Amino acid sequence: MKQPPAYAIASVDHALRLATILQLEGSLSVADAAERLGVARSTAHRLLAMLVYRDFAVQDDTRLYRAGPVLELASHSQSAVSRLRQVALPHLRGLVDALGETVNLTVRTGGTARFIACVECDQALRVGSREGMVFPAHETTAGLLLLADLTDAELDSLHADAEAPAMDELHRELAKVRRNGFALNQGRSERGVVAVGVPVRSADGTAIAGVSVSMPSVRYDRRRLRPIVAILSAAAAALQHDLDG
């Protein structure tokens, strides 16, 4: 798992997070940006102004900011991710209340997994937000769930350059995920962290995202696995219902 640099620059991190939000989700107001980053509106305004200056953002006639020429994606892609995140957030907050741990929503693009939403718990020792970050899909809990939805041929095509022994192991792991209907990640992504996830499916049954809960390994009790999976599955089903609606 990626670790923050020893001398992180908060303003740069904030600007990059805003750029990611604009690219994936579409338009954003100054107030929205301030709320997402947890900063003052004046700070959010300065960050957005710099993104506009460097063509990472543009401001329209309604004073909303959207992705500029450097970041612009197809509008349907933005709206799909934005709607998924918007519909999912109440369910993620409910999961944090029920489980007392940090919860994430992740989508897959090719061989990578992107965290598009995170709600942190309020415990002093907790797993921090990964929102906006991208990792190899096979290294993340939700990424495994989404890879498990592929056929063997699709998986091999996606990892055409991977070594055969590594692919054999991945095939076995994904077969286990398919049988169980959930993924358990014990230190795979980050030492000292345990995560459990289930897929979120569209109306036709395709896995479109993964919802997962992450916790310090010192708080994980294997006897809680089945109850955790049940709570996650209920939330994923409710989210699917809301998306279909």
Automatic annotation (TrEMBL):
Transmembrane segments: none annotated. Residues 72-245 form the IclR-ED domain. Coiled coil: none annotated. It holds the Pfam family IclR_C. InterPro entries: GAF-like_dom_sf, HTH_MetabolicPath_Reg, Tscrpt_reg_IclR_C, Tscrpt_reg_IclR_N, WH-like_DNA-bd_sf, WH_DNA-bd_sf. Residues 9-69 form the HTH iclR-type domain. Keywords: DNA-binding, Transcription, Transcription regulation. It comes from the Bacteria. This is IclR family transcriptional regulator. It comes from Saccharopolyspora ipomoeae.
